[in-house]
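CO-FOLDING WORKSHEET

Operator: S.A.
Ligand of interest: zinc ion
Run index: 134
Mode: holo prediction, single chain
Checklist:
[x] sequence pasted
[x] SMILES validated
[ ] output reviewed
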Amino acid sequence: MSTGTNIPLPRPTPLSRPHWDGCRDGVLRVQRCGDCGQHVFIPAPLCTYCQSGSLEWVDTQGAGSVYSYTVVHRPQRPEFRVPYVVAIVEMAEGWHMLTNLIDIEPDDVKIGMPVRVAFERMSDEITLPYFRPA
Ligand SMILES: [Zn+2]
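OUTPUT RECEIVED:
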């Protein structure tokens, strides 16, 4: 159960490409600041916490818990299959990621429930990082 088959896909930029390459390879990759140690997502040229330019890409566990969520009943485009769950996942490393939950009924989603990344290949270039119950 994904959010749809012909949904519009993100276009990697030089900045975000390491993230998308990681997804394609089955690894959830995020930037981490070499100065303050914070994880930065979405990809940015400078640390959003301390403005340092010394960001590096690191692999993460791909595990977290539901921090917040909403159920979408009206599709933003007809390609989206509704209802679907949009969630903010708090990752084990402490950073947050906006994503979709799959393989769960909207009524069964609970704040704090453990989830794990679930990669869905959409094209040769794009694999989307969704999350499902762990
Ligand atoms: Zn920083």
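REVIEW:
The chain has one domain: 17-133.
The chain has one helix and eight strands.
[x] output reviewed
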